[in-house]
């Protein structure tokens, strides 16, 4: 008489893993009210983490308390990144995204604050990756039927991120070695004064590298500022793909596609 073959013990964990992945995909990519509320909570936590990054140069003086908060933030960020990777259809494709490597580097500065604290100013890139992510706009931007708010927000995020990354770099590099840079506010003041080409001259960075940095700040800052102004004042467009040629943006009152001339039927929410 043959004995019954026992059930494979590997099946239940595999099934549980599949259910967990399906649940994470539902929360991170779903359109239900529960999934949207979950992503809103994640975004609120992200902004709180970014606030901690902004205050880190000041909080660093708190010593042990700072490191406790630092590792708590690292644990939260690591859990979020692991969940996003597990919920992604192809984790290799997820790893190929530049924003993923930025987030991984931010996590490294949190896990090794003693060694990488001088690179802590790059943590503010988290603001840029958040406001330029599909995750953010699928949650926040889903209420908008045009791209104007999204374009202005992206341009503003680039400018603000650049200002605070440069501020952190100047603070970490020149604090203590330059009499004009004694605190974070001094570094922020220098960055804004240089970016706007005001040129008060009360704080100037020494040496050739200081001049090179000032030139980079002026050129890049003016470019980002002009991009923001152009985004704000350029003619209003809405996103409505042309069914024939695929042109994405049109005037709100457009009747024909400017590229191929096909008749468009753009919904008018104000009607």
From TrEMBL:
UniProt main location, coarse: membrane
Keywords: Ion channel, Ion transport, Membrane, Potassium, Potassium channel, Potassium transport, Transmembrane, Transmembrane helix, Transport
Membrane topology per record: Multi-pass membrane protein
Bilayer-crossing regions: 38-59, 65-83, 104-125, 152-172, 209-229
Localization, UniProt: Membrane
One Pfam family per UniProt: Ion_trans_2
Source taxon at top rank: Bacteria
InterPro entries for this protein: K_chnl_dom, K_chnl_Slo-like, Volt_channel_dom_sf
Domain Potassium channel: 161-233
PANTHER family: CALCIUM-ACTIVATED POTASSIUM CHANNEL ALPHA CHAIN (PTHR10027), SLOWPOKE 2, ISOFORM D (PTHR10027:SF10)
Protein name: Ion transporter
């Amino acid at each position: 008489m043959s004995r019954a073959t026992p059930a494979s013990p590997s099946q239940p964990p595999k099934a549980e893993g599949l259910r967990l992945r399906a649940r994470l995909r539902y929360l991170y990519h779903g359109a239900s009210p529960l999934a949207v509320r979950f992503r809103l909570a994640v975004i609120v936590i992200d902004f709180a983490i970014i606030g901690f990054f902004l205050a880190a140069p000041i909080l660093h003086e708190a010593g042990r308390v700072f490191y406790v908060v630092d590792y708590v933030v690292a644990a939260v960020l690591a859990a979020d990144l692991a969940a996003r990777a597990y919920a992604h259809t192809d984790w290799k494709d997820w790893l190929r995204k530049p924003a993923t490597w930025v987030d991984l580097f931010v996590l490294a500065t949190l896990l090794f604050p003693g060694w990488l604290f001088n690179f802590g100013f790059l943590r503010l890139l988290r603001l840029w990756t958040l406001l330029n992510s599909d995750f953010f706009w699928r949650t926040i931007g889903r209420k908008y039927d045009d791209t104007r708010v999204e374009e202005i927000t992206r341009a503003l995020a680039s400018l603000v991120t650049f200002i605070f990354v440069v501020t952190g770099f100047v603070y970490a590099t020149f604090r203590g070695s330059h009499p004009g840079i004694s605190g974070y506010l001094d570094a922020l003041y220098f960055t804004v004064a240089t970016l706007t080409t005001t040129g008060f001259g009360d704080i100037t960075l020494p040496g050739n590298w200081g001049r090179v940095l000032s030139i980079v700040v002026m050129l890049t800052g003016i470019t980002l500022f002009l991009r923001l102004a152009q985004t704000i004042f350029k003619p209003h467009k809405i996103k409505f793909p042309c069914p024939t040629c695929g042109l994405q943006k049109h005037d709100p009152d457009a009747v024909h596609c400017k590229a191929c001339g096909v008749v468009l039927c753009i919904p008018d929410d104000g009607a």
